[in-house]
Amino acid sequence: MSSISLIKIKEDRGVTLVELMIALMMSGILIAALYRTFIGQQRTYTVQEQVVDMQQNVRVSIHRMMSEIRMAGFGNVNNALNLVGGVNGFTQVITPNNNTITIVGGFRQVRRDNGDPILINSVGKDSGKDTLTLNYATDNFDGDKHHHFISIGGLESNTVASRSGNVLTLNLPLTLIPRAGTPIFKIHAIAYGIRNDDGVLVLFRDLYPNTVSSKRETVAENIENVQFEYFDANGNPTGIPSNIRMVRVTVTARTDMSDPEFAGGDGYRRRQIASNIYIRNMGSYF
Q1: Residue 229 burial (CB count, 10 A)
Q2: Which of 14, 42, 50, 106 could disulfide-link to 255, CB 3.0 to 4.6 Å?
Q3: Residues linked to residue 237 through DSSP beta bridges, in sequence order
Q4: Cβ contacts of residue 253 below 8 Å, gap of 6+?
Q5: Strand (E) or helix (H) holding 35
Q6: pLDDT along the chain (286 residues), means of 10
């Protein structure tokens, strides 16, 4: 009877301290491995997310610049450029610089708030000046708050002296007589470049709507550098605005945060995209 009790006591003795320590050690190793795997996956996800954002920034900045630089000079802007002071101080279709570019053109068609186009109904005279009667009264050309350089049908540029209702009085005599239904485009000067915005490098776009101010907006963040190169019709580099037929834009973007484990100098991942932009309207302008 006593031998049976001894066997039962031996079977119920529990876990020894050594066994417990071994179990804890193995559990710690397993938890550490799982934690390291989780941290690694989280870091990989964060890096991939930043790289995707960086690539998207490059694409957005290149696409917008391409569409507007390609349209530089649209609207036969020579009349506006030849005025004293040009278009908001710019007297060339393209003002070239290595890190900035300013372009002039009829980039936006005048429309109502609902998106319907504002068109010319008829042409007239008022006190010896040509007038345009529109199909809708708009304050787009009133005072200093609104832009007054226009292109009529994309064929002839002019400036608005005054507006009365839906009638525009022009400063310059019309060379071409527009037909009813002809659209009107606003002529803007637009500049692109890089600025430091509270420690973040951004690609900016300046829109010059009038003679006293400009509207600056951020096109893309973490754009570290932008370079502009200019070429003539034969593909030779040129700095003469009237000879420019192609602009090469090179944009360099970087990730938002530095990765200390990335073997790349300062830890930032970078992407660079270059694009050749052919100017459609320079040949017809000069």
Answers
A1: 15
A2: 50
A3: 231
A4: 54, 55, 57, 58, 61, 220, 222, 223, 224, 270, 271, 272
A5: helix 17-70
A6: 52 69 82 74 64 73 87 91 85 94 93 94 93 91 67 92 92 93 93 88 80 69 90 94 94 79 74 89 58
Q: Phi and psi of 46, rounded to 5°?
A: -60, -45
- For residue 241, CA distances in Å to 90, 105, 157, 244 come to 12, 14, 19, 5
Q: Write down the domain spans for the chain.
A: 56-280
pLDDT at site 168: 93
- Radius of gyration of the chain measured on its C-alpha atoms: 33
List all residues 6 or more positions away from 39 whose beta carbon is below 8 Å from its beta carbon: none
- The sign of the CA dihedral 47, 52, 53, 59 is positive
Q: Which residues contact 33 (CB under 8 A, 6 or more apart)?
A: none
* 106, amino acid identity: G
DSSP assignments along 235-257, one per residue: S-B---GGG--EEEEEEEEE-SS
Q: What string of DSSP letters covers 217-231?
A: EEEEESEEEEEEEEE
Whole-number Å distance between alpha carbons of 209 and 206? 9
**Chain centre distance of CA 234:** 29
Q: Please give the model's pTM, rounded to 2 decimal places.
A: 0.77
